[in-house]
Amino acid sequence: MKKIRLIPALIALVFALAGAFAFTAQKAEQKRDPVIYHYTSSSDDIDDMRNIANWDVVETPTGCGSTGDLPCSKTFPEEDDVAFQNYLNTFSDPAVLAAAVTTRKD
Fold first, then answer.
1. Does the structure show a pLDDT above 70 at 86?
2. Which tops the pLDDT comparison, 75 or 27?
3. Closest C-alpha to 36, from 8, 64, 1
4. Distance of CA 30 to CAs 2, 9, 105, Å?
5. Rounded mean pLDDT of 52-62?
6. For the chain, how are helix, strand and coil distributed in percent, rounded to 5?
7. What is the DSSP letter of 75?
8. d(CA 78, CA 28)
């Protein structure tokens, strides 16, 4: 008799654990929307271009074009300042401009 009651309890426990893992996996898979970081400084110094304080998240960058010596905007997969700072740290001077979606003049 005890074995008969134990089996449904074990089945319920298995389903409960499976459900908990399913919801955890689903939450981790949720993606964030990409964002646009806009370079706000007028400095052409590489250290300033790499400084996250000189970049703002915007809906629409202003003053951007297709030529210039300053980065203007960069689309990034999600709003994550630490990841974006790490991304900026990987660039040399010309690479920042090449990676920018748009550029601008001083």
1. yes
2. 75
3. 64
4. 43, 32, 38
5. 92
6. 50, 20, 35
7. E
8. 14
How many residues make up the chain in this entry?
106
Mean pLDDT of the chain, nearest integer: 78
Half-sphere exposure of 26 (CA within 13 A, CB side): 6
CB 74 within 8 A of CB 90: no
Using alpha carbons, list the distances in angstroms from residue 38 to 8, 101, 102.
Answer: 58, 10, 9
**How many degrees, rounded to 5, is the angle at CA 79 between CA 78 and CA 82?**
110
Yes or no: say if 72 and 36 are a contact pair by the CB < 8 Å rule: no
**Nearest one of 34, 45, 95, 102 to 71, comparing CA atoms:** 102
State the Cα torsion 77-81-82-86 to the nearest 10°. 70
Q: What tokens does 81 get?
A: 């300042």
pTM exceeds 0.70: no
Q: Is the pLDDT of residue 66 over 80?
A: no
